[in-house]
Amino acid sequence: MSSATGSAGAGRGSHREPSKIPYYVVLTALALFALGPLVILLFNALKTNAEIGQNPLGPPLSPVFENFSNAWTQGDFATTMVNSAILTVGTVVGVCVIAGTAAYALDRLDLPGTDAVLLYLFVASAVPFQLFLVPLFFLWSALNLTNTLFGLVVIYWAIFSPFATLLLRSYLVALPRDFEEAARIDGASELQTLLRVVLPLSWPGFLTVALVSGLAAWNEFFFAITFIQDDSLKPVTTSFLAFQSDFSTDWGLTSAAGFIIILPIIVLFLFLQRRFISGLTAGGLKG
Question: How many helices (H) and strands (E) does the chain have?
């Protein structure tokens, strides 16, 4: 009896868990895929054009740190970064207000035609907005909204609000309605319920929307170069044009400018990554 028990215990003890080596291999490959371009960008930002041509992927042999200061001055980043900050803040505030109120109405107010509106939002999120460039430009010209930061912000509101509304609605679906019903019993209006009850409970979803729309507004180039012609109003993505001529491009300065542009985004994401990922997964899974 004891020998049988011992053999059974030995059998259980000899059972091994699956190896985790494949998981580490996959994670390492993903990390290299994500960080590799950033490392190469930093390497090229410290090289001359000649060295980039000879050694485009390796580390710099003689680092040229002046590329960063030259790129900052030549690209007029002191102006373009301020403009991009204004565009980003305006976009984030507007998208959060538009998407927040729309998502609340679609999920909580039981309005007629909700399914049709959701279908429209899905289609609007999938259709490339570049298709509307020509009529939109004529409309903005008639309204005197071209060459203004506010006109560009309004375009960003229209571009980013459909997806933000769907994301926030999927987050609101999972929130319990007990607190809202209690607030209504106490005499709170719908606006008071939204601001004092729903908003504090759904701030991770709003944070995710703010980060996604802010990142998109910071990186947007197509509408910015089309609707902004005044150099004093151009955003940071247009600074790349300063390093191009008719026949050549200074890739060292271009790489330095690219690193300058993405550095604030990297710092912000590292600071808020846990809240961003939790809000995004909550919105995706709970809907």
Answer: 14, 0
Which tokens hold the place of 26?
């996959």
Q: List the single range of 57-61, 147-151, 277-281 with lowest mean pLDDT.
A: 277-281
- Report the predicted TM-score, pTM, of the whole model to 2 decimal places: 0.79
- List the one residue out of 233, 71, 234, 221 whose CA is nearest residue 156: 221
* Domain made up of 76-286: CATH architecture: Orthogonal Bundle (1.10)
Site of tokens 């399914």: 115
Q: How far apart are CA 180 and CA 131, in angstroms?
A: 41
Q: At a CB cut-off of 8 Å and minimum separation 6, what does 66 contact?
A: none
- Check whether 187 has a pLDDT greater than 60: yes
- Which residues does 57 contact at the CB level (< 8 Å), separation at least 6? 40, 43
Distances (CA, A) of 272 to 54, 94, 205, 209, 284: 39, 21, 13, 13, 18
Query: What does the alpha-carbon distance between residue 274 and residue 285 come to, in Å, rounded to a whole number?
Result: 16
Look at phi and psi of residue 63 and say left if phi exceeds 0, alpha if psi is from -120 to 50, else beta.
beta
pLDDT in tens, 69-115: 999 999 899 999 999 999 999 999 999 999 988 888 888 777 788 88
